[in-house]
Amino acid sequence: MPEFATLLMAVAVGMLAWDCLEVGKNDAANLINGVFGARVMSHRSAVWLAGAAVLAGALFSSPVMETARKGIFEPGQLQLHQAMIVYVSAYIVDTALLHAYSAYGMPVSTTASLIFELVGAALGVSLSLGLVHWGKVGTVLNAIGVSILLTGIAGFLVQRVFRAAIQDEHTDHLRVLLHGPWIAGLMLTWLSWFMVLKGMKAVPCIAAFREHFVERLGMGGFLLVAWGAATLLIHVLATIFQERLTKRLFGILAILGMLCLAFAFGQNDLANGASPGLSAFWLWKHADVGTAEATKMSLPIWLLAVCGLLLVLGMTTKSAQRVTRAAVNTGSQFDHIALYAPGWCKAIARALLRLRPAGPDLAPPPQRTETGKRVHFDPLRAAVIMSVSASVIAFASSNGLPVSTTYVTFAAVVATGMGDRTMARGDADLKIGRAIWVVFSWFFGGLLALVAAAAVAWTLLKAGTAGLVVGLAANLALRVFVKTRADRHERQYHPKLPPEPVPETPA
Prior knowledge:
mainly alpha
């Protein structure tokens, strides 16, 4: 079927751009949660700065690309058009699913979605369980689960320790001068370790540095030396620049963490949007060597850069703003927020809250900017959210595991909120209920992606061009339907709240 294969290739390349935009609307929107929530930067500035880091990270995305491209199933066991059907089916389902979630402001993992879609499409084409690399699927899913658990535990503990040191005085010069250097030094040390020495270990100069310094000192010795050096440097700078630095220290760390997270995202999640389309094109271009041999070809970096640019454009859309706003509101330091959660989720949340022991609030009082905008996180918490998330994603990327940036960042927001006890006051049942609703949607979305991709792939295999037309038409119809319903939902459940009195902090 050379003509059908050519048509599939054209559709795959076209939907590649479409899917990258959808990934930018949802997954990439979570890159700026901490910075935007703390009002350290404007939304537009944060998006474009994070976008530049995403493009830089794309240059180091090859290990994850290999996992997403041929680690989930074995394309060499399929004919050319069958392998391409798998990739196109994944796109048809993925673009529809991501559009629906983003329209409602629901964060969803593009990583998990892609895995389930590739598995479902492979099953729909082959009607055989043997085509799927179940061991690899299990490894990736386990990595996703472990990353969520690790982020949650680390985010809670780190936030609790740092909050005990800084308390609610993150702008007090003397307290930040006392505790800020070792906190900032610790953040810089673990970011450098995970981002540079782990995430960029294949770079020749980094490899040489590891050989001559890190391995000689040992990992523990090197980290202690790096922490001490970074702490001393921050202390000297804080002594020189005084309040000009101490009042901005944690905000600067939050921005640095955002850049590291965006870089790790470019390494990890860019492959999700790019892999099916680029793989389909490569298979078609090298059809003469056979499917098995074509998958061994390398992909040019400039194509990944183009995909990264499309992803950044997706981050600038209204749907991306909805995703960011909902995630920030879920962990907000404000008592009353505008969110949606089903009644059964809020009922579970109320039951969980009754089991919680009483304790004092740890977070600073809610604040507003000079223009009246809510500051949902203080800079210290924003820095913890960004740095912990970036470290987990970078570590996974260095090991070729496409974990979920969405799951990790959302877990960091919720965990740090629990560490500050902001999730247990005011609209606590709504905040926790929303978190439960989001987690439930992750499982439901994965199952839906698998079943839908299998059905689409089987239809394309049996009906050919006619099936492809039906699949694309259904995708477009679903987008129109979802947009209408989501806009109505937005007006009903996310109205602008009236101004809320904020307690004044002592001078």
